[in-house]
Automatic annotation (TrEMBL):
It comes from Eleginops maclovinus. This is Guanylate kinase-like domain-containing protein. One of its GO terms (molecular function) is CARD domain binding. One of its GO terms (cellular component) is cytoplasm. Residues 1-228 form the Guanylate kinase-like domain. It comes from the Eukaryota.
Amino acid sequence: MALGQKDFKRKFLRKVPGRVRLVKAVDPGCRGNGSTQQVLYTLSKRHEEHLIPYSLVQPVQVQTKRPVIFSPSLLSRGLIERLLQPAESGLKFNTCPPEPIQASEKRDKRVFLLDSSIPEQELGIRLQSIQDVISQDKHCLLELGLQSVEGLLRQGIYPIVIHIRPKNKKHKKLRKLFPRCGEDYVMEEACQAEELQLETLPLLYFSLEPSAWSCTDELLAAIRNAIHSQQRAVAWIELDRLQ
């Protein structure tokens, strides 16, 4: 069996298809019992009830530094502040501070709005600002939420999406590290909503497991490693959704 697996891997690596259909395996418990349960095709294996029947994805090798979006987005500001310190981190990372956006610009596809509880103070990040950081050969750390991912892809920007899985259901560890995130229920509701959003992205995201860190320094180191590994990896995109 081991030899057969090696031969299969060699054959697969020699010919990489331009389009790949990712298939979820049938539950073994459903085999041979006459079950009519539908086989689902997806980029992930969770929240099947929210998924389309299948996802056709294509590989994109991104040569320029890819911007980074964090989930839960409530952590973005605190993470960005820490990742830009000490000073030497600025050699690899930069950010685009949100700026006021006029009402006339809200529908501009080159403007990406932040989630705001105060509509009168709309903040956003312009495409040109992100492109300026990319031209510096740096990863642009963005405060944008997951709702901006598809818009970025339509503009030819392929962000790295890093989802930080909480260590427990109450998210107390994350709130201890980032106290400005708000009350327990705010963090919990935000995490639940974004976990559903992640499954609808036309881009494969990276999950940072709870076992990868136990303190702030370890979390930051794990994030840096994830960014570097995702930069080298192929980006799998549902290009059909962007047409």
